[in-house]
Amino acid sequence: MSGHNRWTKIKRQKEAMGASKGNLFTKIIKEITVASRMGGGDPDGNARLRSALIAAKGANMPNDTIQRAIKKGTGELEGVSYEEITYEGRGPGGVAIVIECLTDNRNRTFGEIRTIFTKGGGAIGEPNSATYMFDRRGVITVNDTTEDAVMEVALDAGALDVQPGDDDGSFTVLTEPNEVHKVAGALEKGNFKVVEAKSKYLPQNPITLDAEKGAKMLALVEKFEDNDDVQNVYANFEIPDDVMEQIDG
Question: What is the CA radius of gyration of the chain?
């Protein structure tokens, strides 16, 4: 999905410049809080927390902010209790969309997600109306290495595959969902630079969009990601580079 990946890199650059950093911090803080509540505040014994801390480090989140989130999760500080909810639906061009949320108000979040779907030219669906079009995989991103080096350690640790990144010198390691943290731990012990480790929905058969539907789809995804309750958005579309250039223009 080169066009889609290109848009994702633009979004990451905006986050790095601070355009979306407040929103990004909110999402990471929620994840740290929930991970600490479910598995405790020690990252050595809590794989989900380790993954959240990788994201926090990548976003340059201050350590005192991280520690407050952990303490809220463990109950050492008063905090909000978040619920994990997944919504599914369709977007422009029939694109399947899966949205993972953390919320303290299920009714509010449902109403907001439904409204974003409707205004963006899509429709919210029933459970399993979109997830069947994706594979659930553990996804680990590593930098500053070679394919042979990362492949040797990753496959020995139980990874399914190693793929080159998007022309940025990174590599993507794919695992079964319940193996992602084990493999990431093996890579960290091997002194590889792990910049992401989480379970994701990977599209099976992406839909290629033209400029009109592509622009609408990108705008819809951005609306979802601007919502503080939305943690992850997955969609089975791709936009060719030449079409992406039309949209950028």
Answer: 18
- Domains 83-132+204-240 and 133-203 agree in fold: yes
Helix (H) or strand (E) holding 221: helix 211-226
| DSSP helix/strand/coil, 82 | coil
Q: Are 61 and 193 in contact (CB under 8 A)?
A: no
| CATH 3.40.50.720 corresponds to the domain 133-203 | no
Strands of 123-124's sheet in order across: 123-124, 83-90, 96-103, 230-235
Residues 24-54 pLDDT 10s: 899 999 999 999 999 999 998 888 898 899 8
In CATH, which of 3.40.190.10, 3.30.70.980, 3.30.70.120, 3.40.640.10 is domain 83-132+204-240? 3.30.70.980
Which residue type occupies 189? K
Q: Indicate whether 88 pLDDT > 60.
A: yes
The mean pLDDT value for 132-150 works out to 92
Q: How confident is the model at residue 127 (pLDDT cuts 50, 70, 90)?
A: very high
For the segment 156-175, the average pLDDT, to the nearest whole number, is 88
Top CATH class, 2-74: mainly alpha
Q: Parse the chain into domains and list their residue ranges.
A: 2-74, 83-132+204-240, 133-203
